Amino acid sequence: MSEATSVLGRPERTCELVDSAEFGIVEKPLSPWETLSNNVVLRKVAILVALAIVWELYARWLNNPLLIPTFSATVAAFVQAVSGGGLLLKVWSSIKILALGYGAGLLFAAILTTLAITTRIGNDFLETLTAMFNPLPAIALLPLALIWFGLGPRSLSFVLIQSVLWPVALNTHSGFLSVSPTLRMVGRNYGLRGLRYVAQILVPAAFPSILTGLRIGWAFAWRTLIAAELVFGVSSGQGGLGWFIYESKNTLDIPSVFAGLFTVILIGLFVENVIFRTIESRTIRKWGMST
Questions:
Q1: Is 101 left (phi over 0), alpha (psi -120 to 50) or beta?
Q2: pLDDT in tens, 13-25
């Protein structure tokens, strides 16, 4: 008791010292199955493998390649199209137009949201335009784009801007409005105004909403591009990924049609799980704004 009292320095309390060897297991090592199940990448790969197996089994049971080819036949058509170089050229054509339209849409969204958060007239202007054009499907502007810009990349870029601009602007503006008054006052106290105030205070604080807008804008732009190319995605003998799907349908090459759709899905998975996940891990998660 005297030893315990001298160690603890509390003569009014008594306790027994326990040897560390008598402690129970504080942390139990994970089993191999628990280690694998905690890996996000492996879980997603397992889901994709399961879907591929279901696809293969259902297509074999249906036994109608003109409706649904097997997964193995689709992969074979995909490999053949890639090795021949035709599919890669189509993908590159689509990516170039997507980058142009997506980048222009982001630029216009940044200008509108900056004006909206710094001026009253800018806020009213953004709210009015989003109420008018956000419900309007971008693909509905395709006939006007053909009349105004002709058959080519400029028409595709026009409809892509329409599909990107409003969701990005809405999410960014909503994120700016949700920034706490404390952070706003900090920026004002440091004398930040205009673009410096937006860039150094509002953008970091509202980045979760901004990233959500970027993801939604990307998804809208990608599917709008494929849909537009299915209609008129050929220019000067060249076409994009949507045109590849359309041409394969005309020749009743259904495995190639599914190979084109498979490519659309692969690009979507890459952008979401590699590009946006990397941005999220280096910003939102690093800053402690998400779990």
A1: alpha
A2: 666 666 666 655 5
Give domain limits for the chain.
83-282
Considering the domain delimited by 83-282, tell me its CATH architecture: Orthogonal Bundle (1.10)
Contacts of residue 180, Cβ cutoff 8 Å, sequence gap at least 6: 205
Neighbouring CB atoms inside 10 A of 277's CB total 13
Which residue, among 155, 149, 169, has the nearest Cα to 225 in the 3D structure?
Answer: 155
d(CA 279, CA 241): 26
**How many Cα neighbours within 13 Å face the side chain of 188?**
7
Tracing tokens 């008791």 back to the chain, one arrives at 1
- For 89-119, give one letter per residue: b (16+ CB within 10 A) or e: ebbebbeebbebbbebbbebbbebbbebbbe
Residue 201 near residue 183 (C-beta atoms within 8 A): yes
Torsion of CA 177, 183, 188, 190, to 10 degrees: -150
CA distances from 111 to 61, 162, 165, 191 (A): 54, 15, 10, 22
- The answer to whether 126 and 112 are in contact (CB under 8 A) is yes
Mean model confidence pLDDT for the chain:
82
Q: pLDDT of 57-88, one tens digit each? A: 998 998 888 888 989 999 998 898 888 878 88
* CA-based nearest residue to 156, from 95, 214, 109, 110: 95
In one-letter notation, the amino acid at residue 63 is N
DSSP class of residue 140 equals: G
- Give which of 62, 77, 66, 56 is closest to 254, Cα–Cα: 66
